[in-house]
Amino acid sequence: MKTSITTSATRAPDRSRHWHEAIASAYFPLDLRFREADRFSGDLTTWQFGDVSISRLTCDALQYLRLPHHFRAAREEEFLVTVPAKAEVFFSQCGREVTCRPGGFFLERSSEPYQFSHSEAADMWVLKVEADALGGRMRAPDRFCTLQFEADNGAGGLFTDMLHLLPARFDGMTQEARTTVGRQLVDLLVLAIKADERVLTSGNSTVRSAHLARVEAYVRANLQDFRLDPERIAGACGISTRYLHELFRDTGDTIRNWIRIQRLSACREALADPGNVQTAAEIAYSWGFSDQTQFSRAFKAQFGLPPGEYRAMAAKGRMHG
Question: Residue 207 and residue 188: Cα distance in Å, rounded?
Fold first, then answer.
């Protein structure tokens, strides 16, 4: 699905309301403060790639506020990734702030109040991704909100290159292809974030953070191995089992629960994949769940629907999209 919204055909007195509605539809509800509401000019185009959306937003100077009253009808948590192409952008959330210039990008989370503004006409690319999809690929992504990441080189350059390229290819893609490349774009985003040395040193101890990052990478690479357990993980990562449990205790989780959530997230992604012809039971088994009843119960507890209903809902969403 592709949608385009512009103020050019909107009467001056209606432009503020029109842009409020456009922003809420593309992202989530925000309060907007205009420099000159009647003269405001903006264009917003959004492309849907499965559960991921890419949008390009060009508009006059503006301030966006995410406030407590917006959470009364809050949806599931989402992250926005903003990549300025023209003019610098100011962002503040949870007592931290960043001024991001073209050549960088940063993350925002929907579940906390924030302030976002640009004092000049801006041109921005924005990726919207569900928190579950991002959290399934990296631990606690909210740690990295208000950090500016490189958008011009390395993994960050690959991410932004793909972000700019995909909309131009949108019309020639099948729905299945759009879903697949949307996931690949999120994978590139995670790669770009993890390549930043601040990610490795974002905990209380650089050494502990390095061990935890090594453990998480090993687990993700071996999720389909039925033999994956704390002893095997600790041995592969060169640490004691006791130390492994301590590392996860620091995160407020256990290693076994974290593995279970990673496997459930992998099953969820497989169930939503239109190209996956496996049954729900086969998917569960391939990701380490030997008891179908236990899997169905755990999946519903994590995502709110049993596996079969989730797959049907995902298929229906693609059909309507």
Answer: 25
In terms of Cβ atoms closer than 10 Å to its own Cβ (0-12, 13-18, 19+), residue 59 is buried
Helix axes 292-303, 307-320, angle to 10 degrees: 50
Residue with token string 């390395």: 154
C-alpha span between 273 and 270 (Å, rounded) = 5
Strand partners, 108: 80
Do residues 109 and 145 touch, judged by C-beta distance below 8 A?
yes
pLDDT at 188 over 60: yes
**Beta strands 78-86; 96-100: pairing state:** unpaired
In contact, 52 and 185? CB cutoff 8 Å: yes
In degrees rounded to 5, what are phi and psi of residue 250?
-65, -25
In this predicted structure, the answer to whether residue 42 has a pLDDT above a threshold of 50 is yes
Say which amino acid occupies 321.
G
Are 159 and 188 within 8 A, CB to CB? yes
- For the stretch 304-317, pLDDT in tens is 899 999 999 888 76
Please check the confidence at residue 94 and state whether its pLDDT lies above 90.
no
Which amino acid belongs to residue 159? Answer: F
The pTM of the full predicted model, rounded to 2 decimals, is 0.72
Domain range list for the chain: 2-200, 207-320
d(CA 157, CA 161): 6
- Evaluate whether 218 touches 236 at the Cβ level (below 8 Å): yes
CATH 1.10.10.60 for the 207-320 domain, yes or no: yes
DSSP state of 82: E
Which CATH homologous superfamily contains domain 2-200? Jelly Rolls (2.60.120.10)
Instruction: Give burial (CB, 10 Å; 0-12/13-18/19+) of 275.
Output: exposed
Query: 167 vs 51, 90, 162, 321, CA distance in Å?
Result: 15, 26, 9, 16
Concatenating the DSSP letter of every residue in 86-141 gives: ES-EEEEETTEEEEEPTTEEEEEETTS-EEEEESS-EEEEEEEEEHHHHHTTSS-G
